[in-house]
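User: For my dataset I need records formatted as: sequence, then C-alpha cells, nothing else. Please produce one.
Assistant:
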Amino acid sequence: MGETAPVSEGTQQHAPAWRGGFGRLWAAAAVSKFGDSLRIAAMPLLAVSLTDDPLLIASVTACGYLPWLLFGLVGGAVADRVDQRRAMWTVDLVRGVLMAGFAAAVWLDAHSIALLIAAAFVLTALQTVFDNAATALLPTLVEAGALGSANARLMTTQQIVGSFLSAPAAPVLLAAGAAVPYAVDAATYAVAAVLIASLRIQGPQGPPRAPGPAGSTLRGQIAEGLRHLWRDRALRGLCIATTICNVGMGALIATLVVHVTVWLDAGTAGYAAVLTAFGAGSVVGGLAAGRLADRIGRIRSVFLAALVQTGALVAMGSVRALWATIAAMAVFAVMGMVWNVNQTTLMQQRSPAGMLGRVSAAIRTLAVAGAPLGALLGGAAAGALGPNAPALLAAALFVPAVAALSGLIN
C-alpha cells in the first residue's frame, strides 16, 4: 500500500476565536457533558435498586460499548453524507425527547431494568453519529492553525465539567428525586441542540458536506474510509497503538476499585482520591498538550505520552502504597490527555474533509472494541495473579504500542 502523505505535521498554533461557531460548539459540549455525566453516575445506582443480578447490572454498562461495535462505522459514513450541524442538533433533540420520557417513567415508578438497558443502547447508538459528525465539523469552525488548541479546550472543558461539576452535583440531584438527573440531562440536550443549530461556519473547508452522490452506498463509503486509514502510515500506526492500549485501559479501569480497596486496603476514600487525581491530571494534560506539541511535534507527543504511561503503570502495579497509585494515575491522566488531543488533531489534519467522519469512526470503533476485551483479561489476571496484576498487564500491552509509535518518528 502507498502512503497518502509523509508523516509530518504543523504544530505552531494559535487560540481559536470564541465568537461565532467555536464558542457555541464549546458551550454545547460543556452543557452536554454535564448532563451526560449526571446520567452516567445515576444509571448504575438505579440499576442496583431494580435488580441484584450482576449480569443485568453489567448489561447497562455493556450497552455503552455494544452500539459502537455494531453501528460505529455506519455512524461515521452517515456523518460524511449529511450536513453535520443538522445531524448533531437532530440527534440531540431526539436524545432530549428520549431522556425526558425516561425521566417521566422513573418519576411515575414505571421503569424497569429492561428500560434502562434499552435507553443505554439507543443513546449510545445515536452517539455514534453525533461524535463522528462533531469531529468532522470542528475543522470547518476554526482556522487550521487553531485546530489543536480547539481540541484541547473542548476536551479539557469536558473533563472539568465531568469530574469537578457533575460529580458533586449528582448526589445532590439524586437526593431531590430519582428522576431529577435524567430530567436535567434532557434539558441539557435541548440547550445543546439550540446552540449547535445556530453555528456559523468560519473555517477554510466551507460548509458541511452535502449528501453523497446518487448510487453511492454506505458499505462502499465505509470501505473507502478504511482504505484511507490503512494507507496513511501515521493514522494506521496511531490506530494500532490506540487499540492495543485500550485493551490495557480496559483491564486497568475494570479492576481499579479492587486494586485500591483490596491490594492497597485504602477503602472508598482512597478510591475517590485516585479518581480525583485522574481528573486533575487530565485537566493539566489538556492545558499542556498544545505546548508540548509545539516543542516536539504531535507524533512525538503521542509517543512520549505512551512511554510515560507505561512507566506509570509499572509503578502502580509494583509499589504497594496509596501515594504511589495517586501519583501514577495523575501522571497517566496527564499523558492520556496529551495523547487524545494530539491524536484527534492529527486525524483531522490528515483526513480529507469529506472522509473525516469515516476515519474517525474506524479509529473509535477499534478502540472501543479493545476495552471490553481488556476488562475480561483484567478480571482474569486479578483473580489468578492478584489485584495488582491488571496494572502490570496494561503496562505489558503498552509496550507494543510504544514500538508501533516509535516507527512513526522521522
